[in-house]
Batch of 4 targets.
Target 1
Amino acid sequence: MNRRNFIKKLGLGLSVTGLAATGCKKSSSLSLSGTDSNREVPTDKMTYRITPSTGDKVSLLGYGCMRWPLMSDPNGKEGEEIIDQDAVNELVDYALAHGVNYFDTAPPYVRGKSEEATGKALSRHPRDSYYIATKMSNHHLARTGMKGKELYDASVEMYHNSMKKLQTDYIDYYLLHNCGGETGMPFLEQRFIDTGLLDFLLKEREAGRIRNLGFSYHGDVKVFDYLLSLHDKMKWDFVQIQLNYVDYRHASGMNFNAEYLYDELAKRDIPAVIMEPLLGGRLASLTDHLNARLKEREPEESIASWAFRFSGTFPKVLTVLSGMTYKEHLEDNIRTYAPLRPLNDEELAMLEDTAQVMIGYPSVPCTTCEYCMPCPYGINIPGIFAHYNKCINEGNVTSSNKDPNYTKARKAFLVGYDRSVPKLRQASHCIACDQCKPHCPQSIDIPRQLQRIDRYVESLKQGSEITV
């Protein structure tokens, strides 16, 4: 598709959105350097999109509840953490006061504690002032070998437990979680088709306990196509996909290009809910060269804002989820969408060029979802990948000990590694048990990547020729 048709498809010449009003911590892992933190955060300019099936006016910025802030557990062992409920309450209050009204959680998020923490925070506000999204995350149950009626009963129990934890008697947006992963169609059939759960969910929507029904997609595109083929029966109200300016045409692993996914939804007038707009944080801060190019165009805006503007530019996008652990991220994203400035032709072309540069980097496509955790051997898998990717972006991963930048890069990598990941949780302790691999929605060969990074670390420690 040429650039002109790409812009036409996005509908940039049309009115994309209507506006409406609704009535200290560790340092951030996503850089907002170069932005003015004192800039106004509007309370009455949030961009909203309408859900066709229910007429909900949904904020374009959605709150992803996978990364709630943590604190040390005063009653636990050293190093154990729990959700900081006071911090969650403050973030939720601030979000609602600034027009954010969509909150996305799931039973396994934050080691199974997200729904409860989200419910405590939201229940302090009128029920009609926010929309709750949660999921039937029965892939965890199916992995244990559950099938048929046993899996059906456990899944229905999960559904009812979600309502209890969220302190509600209905769910605004309910999803079949993580469709397409594991073995693709056989796993989907085991979870939802053979159990009869699809019929159960349709009845729950008919009864009003589910207001909008959809699914979240990762992995085998045959599953995505199959579920869309059921649209005449299921009448999907929305679908959650991974969309950002890299994955739009350059998806890696088992992920499929979002250009195809979005187009298929748009053909059927099904709103898209967007996850991973920052690709696990990698689009929040790029290399110095790429950062400088974006800063030249928008000096006051964060690097992350470009990714959020990209996802929000698509007119069939209902909301864009962001796991905002820190208030500064929440503030920055509110500024980006209050109101949204859709990207123009030239800006879209620049981001496509940025994506083409980025796919040449040897980064690990980790989105820090933590589905691989906890590791039975205590390894901090997301932390290791995050440090490695950060060093790539900053130019501190070197290919040879003869590089002019070698000494600086070596020090930055090793010192930063020890600071961000305790030694007992580093990649050297991986025994390749493979327990993490089936859980990764990005289909990363986690043990292989950990071993590759450990070889690189050992090369730096020894000062020897680089081994990867």
Target 2
Amino acid sequence: MINFEFPEDFIWGCATASNQIEGAVDADGKSPSIWDANMRDQPEKFWNGHHYNTTIADFYYHYKEDIENMRELGLKSFRFSLSWTRILPDGRGAVNPKGIDFYDRVIDCLLENGIAPFADLYHWDLPESLGKAGSFLNPQVIDDFHDYAEVCFKHFGDRVRYWSTINEPSAMRCFTANDPRFDFQDPACYLTYVRNVLKMHNAAVKSFRENVAPGIAEIGAVSAFVPIYARTSDPKDIEAAKIQEDYVCNVWFSGILKGKYPERLLTHAGLKCDFRDELQAELTACHQPVDFIGANYYYPNTIGYKEGNFLNTELAQVYYAQSDYGFRIYPQGLYDTLMYFKREYGNPKIFLTENGFATDREKHGADLEDDERIAYLKEHFRELNRVLDAGANVQGYFLWSIVDTFECFNGLRYQFGLNHIDLETKKRTKRKSWYYYQDCIKKHRTV
């Protein structure tokens, strides 16, 4: 049997987000986020009427139990997000002491159990009040995010080891909660969104440097990387794949790591707008270097050329196996993703901040004997081992997720957790994959 070894200091973790596990959406002074508002106003959009306050893991009340589970599992780090509206109920202004107290208790509990906190400032749950004020299309959100970040750094910066400013702005539908004001095929809308989110990121990094003592913590940002392959070797297909990869992925990674927009985005006829020529100088002026980058990998895409379509591209049909969630299963894409950073971005310090496999609660029930997830993890860990041998500067892996998570409009239909959540009792039950991951962590290897 072949063993795939990992370094002794490799960081094994799990990842999740406040709005996907916490619940308690109106408890202790928290106000609605854009997702809370969506569920309140359009409950018919959500699977079986699922709501954050009723069908969720209730981490807000079960965090001690879940952190004890993480300690038993052997996690070295836990990546979670802070809820903006739990800390600043109005999105700006007065701080909610009960929100600060909750995250103080979570962070301290993690440290007591030997688990390094990895905190995302933002994971899709914009305060409803700021959404009504123009959301990411209003440049005021930049100052609001800076002020929110400053509150977090001042309260938690002495204990959080890793910080991320934003999570997956590339997941635009989720990032904006399907706000009808956002049409990302409109160049002015897309580039306004990109411009403001990159400025939010840089404002937060600047605040971090001003408020957290050097050497205590590191800061970066997290986004999804979708390796995009050309449908054929035809130059038009190759160019179509490159522009889509820049449009979805590199606009964030290049903007964050290099302080540069991909040249294709600034010259493509399909993305022309009145202010496009101003963007690069603006980004250069506000760019703040980061300590690491986080990449989320789930699946690849294949793109071909089609004249007349948006960016003259189309999604090509491929026949990879798919998870119940619809993600294409292609482990080599993980290797290609991490090698891309080595080749194109100078081999920065990188964490694989999300990767995981979901099963359908309707088809499989609790799925405690989740052999499919174990097979998925084995193949992806082999690619992770291969990329380490190739010299990529990968420092850790964060599995999504420790418990079943609320997946946007799908509620808790799709189960990503190492621990199953009973929807009625909130009882946690370890899946077979929990024990597999525990063995990998303990032995620093997989088979």
Target 3
Amino acid sequence: MTDLSVYILPSMILGILIFGILKKVPLYEEFIEGAKDGFKVSITIIPYLVAIIVGISMFKASGSIEIISNCFGSLLNKLSIPIDIVPIMITRSLSGSATLGLFSDIVTTHGAESYVTKLAAIMVGSSETTFYVLAVYFGSIGIKKYRYALLTGIIADIAGIVLAIWVARLFFLAST
């Protein structure tokens, strides 16, 4: 399987090139046009990226994550949910890179085999960066009415958190 995976991407590229040559497509010119379009898209989304990065940085720097963690700490203890997981619950909908940074801190603090780390890993993989997607992608193409997309994203994020907790308990808490 490892040997096969090494050849998949080069085979796809070669296949696309051969197909383009057979269809008599001007490959270089089409590549340049695609690169121009990609550059235009990146210029369009820069303001949205800056806005979401500044917002996330302000949220983290304000201490809001710690305040929320402290508010829900006793409830989470009653439910056997580690308090260290709260920052991931909060930031996952906002930023993938911020969440991965928090996840790295959890792994470093608790070790790779701890229940907290396993729960965090499941949680990171079971949800989407809803607000990032809405801000960057919807903003870049000019969608102004995203109320239902926001509601759907939040419901999916909550479902991802609840199911991550359930799966982690099922597989890792029961075995200890």
Target 4
Amino acid sequence: MKKNKNTIDRREFIKRLGAGSLLTAAAFTGCKSNGLKIDSSALGEVPTDKMTYRTNPNTGDKVSILGYGCMRWPTIEGGSARDQRSKIDQESVNELVDYALAHGVNYFDTSPVYCQGMSEEATGIALSRHPRESYFIATKMSNFSNPSFENSVAMYKRSFEKLQVDYMDYYLLHNIGASLDAFNRRFIDNGILDFLIEERKKGKIRNLGWSFHGEKEIFDHILSLHEKVHWDFIQIQMNYSDWRSARGNNVNAEYLYAELEKRNIPVVIMEPLLGGRLSNVPNHIAARLQEQAPERSVASWAFRFVGSYPMVLTALSGMTYMEHLEDNIRTYAPLEELNDEQKEFLFETAELMLQYPTIPCNDCKYCMPCPYGLDIPGILLHYNKCVNEGNLSKSSRDENYRKARRAFLVGYDRAVEKERQADHCVGCKQCNPHCPQRIDIPREMRRIDKYIEDLKQGREF
């Protein structure tokens, strides 16, 4: 395997990183809080030798329970890679990867479509500077637009090239659950599943699995193929909100996890923070959580929750900023599992959060790029932020209407460029099939745009 010219050995990078000489949180301006309302410097240095690991029963892999989701790499322009105008900041990616590895994180999850197709290459550049045996790489068959056998095999081979590896540790059929017809078209009728099974026999794939968003019946059907295919792992959306109160077309994680536990199939967790919604919570919810554990971040509750289930192999987090990586490492180095009473406290917290009419956007950016230039995630995230902060008026007669009106409108123009705002939506619906949460995006754009116009015009509502 050809090595990057900037290859460094493990002893050297631990020496350089262990003392915390890397990028600090202050270097990342404008970052989200991750629910971090404490002085993290008071907690001391982030431990390098206390990461919690889970053993894959199929391979014996010792996998860090904190996995790095590579769909939100930082950009030179600032923020996470969202659209085609954003260029990944490779230097920052390298530093984040170096820091993660030095502190025990060894699982990295990417896809051919993440970061507008740039994630695999950026991830490969960063990881190839380290010994191959020091990390596990996961990527996906993301053949949404053209699932022909030829195109799918070409996508598979490109992943090896971009990631600079000659085998995949974990390989997934990406985002299954929209419909059984779609599953058959993408993986059965074209022979790709059979091809991937053969690749596993050859050792090119060490673990074969799939990621799920969708209908219970489809989950059950594909899981029923286990005796024939032998799924090595399955990736599900799991968090304390979705455990019993999954919204939209999602299935309660309590059911999904139980079905996998019955079959002794290792579980990889996506969306432990619900796209950030379990860290950027309403103020009184944050106070409720921090009253229980003042020294912990709001986000740490969500990570401890998923880590408290023994079949969880790793929990993915898309850590754009160093402060998020540091906080999550502290949570899992080592993991302090929740007891039953603490879990019930979180389920009660989830019920309280359901009273807030947020839109279930997880900021995955699968809807991007919009052919008409909308910043769909940016619009939805600003709306949700205003809901959580109490700046969404139900009536122009509300006591705090003027304050909320200003906060929404001023914040909207700062968060989303004018030419990318909701009023530019033409209702083409090209985004809808790509949304794992099954949001009717054009409908939400119309609703948000009407609300904005009412605010601007000072109309009664």
